[in-house]
Task: inverse folding
């Protein structure tokens, strides 16, 4: 299932990366080939903003992956890409199961 998700998502994510020089990255467990989700930056044309976003399998919620990824992504965005502003959007419906 994870490989099908990666295969279907690669074209979407890689196209954005080529256009904006940033994008979403697949996240795997260290020392394993276990896909746990994705995280990264994306340009949102409807807001004219750069968004930090992530999605992780519920099995991996509460383990610090989102925090660790977000910290690395913000550091990359502000220090390497020299972005001025990065937003994040949360939906009210997003709740831990």
Result:
């Amino acid at each position: 299932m994870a490989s099908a998700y990666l295969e279907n998502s690669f074209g979407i994510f890689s196209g954005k990366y080529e256009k904006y020089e940033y994008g979403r990255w697949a996240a795997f467990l260290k020392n394993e080939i276990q896909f746990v989700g994705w995280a990264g930056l994306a340009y949102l044309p409807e807001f004219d903003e750069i968004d930090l976003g992530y999605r992780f399998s519920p099995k991996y919620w509460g383990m610090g992956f989102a925090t660790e990824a977000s910290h690395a992504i913000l550091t990359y965005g502000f220090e390497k890409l020299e972005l001025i502003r990065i937003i994040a959007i949360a939906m009210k419906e997003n709740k831990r199961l």
